Amino acid sequence: MLVLGVESSCDETGLALYDSAAGLLSHALHSQVAMHAEYGGVVPELASRDHIRRVVPLLRSTLENAGKSLADVDAIAYTRGPGLSGALLVGCAFAEALGLALDKPTLPVHHLEGHLLSPLLSADPPTFPFVALLVSGGHTQLMRVSGVGDYELLGETLDDAAGEAFDKSAKLLGLPYPGGALLSRLAETGTPERYALPRPMLHSGDLNFSFSGLKTAVLTLVRENAEDASEAFRADVARAFQEAIVEVLVKKSLKALKQTGLQRLVVAGGVGANRQLRSTLDDEAKRKRFRVHYPELEFCTDNGAMIALAGCLRLQAGAEAKPAGSFAVQPRWPLAELMR
Ligand code: KG4
Ligand code: ZN
């Protein structure tokens, strides 16, 4: 079974072909980061228009690289939500129209299900069950992943996502959007433990997160030292921010492993690229004897491959692809609605 995947929920247009027997055949991605950087964040209308421009050329290169034609495709999976409504509508309209024209069935996919299953695309895939720490610009969740369609939300952020907190703090430190990776590089030159920022909800007793207070603490520190704009000061603040957020993410992940009794942790999402997060988790994994998987970065961030994969696995698990033509997206779509 050959599944075409289409992702357009935010600022990345992703297309991919996943074959149930041969695995991922090809994928193509266009990131809009450079376009939105000028505005300091994602501009939804610009995102939608850019998806329209990119989707057909990306489809062409995906087919070409796989040596396939549209006639070979058995089903079209696309992200139905959650995400920006206009951006989702582009992918949905494209997939449904293509399905209608080719007389191929379509399957709407939950974006977070794509992220949760994305580690299966990596060279060193984890086996089920595992705990997933999903840390991206839009999401921060701990999930128990027991199999395809079998997910349990263990905890999530009550306000900002981890990546959002990185980006907002980076902005306060004068770094351009999206500043997460830049803040992390700056932090590496900072003095360890120079400032102690709060560790929000570290002892809340549950697996939820809250990061908006941390960002406010950065703002206060910057304001209190307004006369000191030196690189060294900014590096120390970046360091303190990173120490705080990494400690919370790591301790809650350990707690999730303990609570579920599982010994595999998967880190997905752009913040998973953070070096301090990785080295702290690696140290803990050695000490506490659990395995930690980091999918390749191209599958950590938004991409079409995870949508094609999730669609294919869903179909193999008995989900029904529907005749194309229904036109609906779900910008807000709780993952819990997928549970049986
Ligand atoms: O998964 P992703 O593409 O998110 C969404 O599309 O939502 O991840 C992007 C997020 C951004 O917030 C970015 O600043 C953050 O991941 N990020 C990092 C690093 N690299 C990317 N945050 C911390 N450290 C990094 N090295
Ligand atoms: Zn995502």
SSE order and pairing:
Blueprint: E1 2-7, E2 12-19, E3 23-31, H1 33-37, H2 44-66, E4 75-81, H3 85-102, E5 106-110, H4 111-117, E6 130-135, E7 140-147, E8 150-156, H5 162-172, H6 180-187, H7 212-224, H8 231-260, E9 264-268, H9 275-288, E10 291-293, H10 297-300, H11 305-316
Parallel strand pairs: 1-4, 4-5, 6-9, 9-10
Antiparallel strand pairs: 1-2, 2-3, 6-7, 7-8
Helix pairs in contact: 2-3, 4-11, 5-6, 5-7, 5-8, 6-8, 7-8, 8-9
The chain binds 5'-O-[(R)-(carboxyoxy)(hydroxy)phosphoryl]adenosine (KG4) and zinc ion.
Structure description:
The protein contains 11 helices and 10 strands. It is of the alpha/beta class and 340 residues long. It folds into 2 domains: 2-116 and 299-338, Nucleotidyltransferase, domain 5 (2-Layer Sandwich), CATH 3.30.420.40; 128-294, 2-Layer Sandwich (Nucleotidyltransferase, domain 5). The strands form 2 sheets. The protein has a 5-stranded mixed sheet, with helices on both faces. Strands 8-7-6-9-10 form a 5-stranded mixed sheet, covered by helices on one side. Helix 2 (44-66) packs parallel to helix 3 and helix 8 packs parallel to helix 9 (275-288). The mean pLDDT is 95. The structure holds 5'-O-[(R)-(carboxyoxy)(hydroxy)phosphoryl]adenosine and zinc ion. 5'-O-[(R)-(carboxyoxy)(hydroxy)phosphoryl]adenosine binds at residues 10, 136-138, 163, 166-167, 178, 180-181, 184, 269-271, 273-274, 301-302.
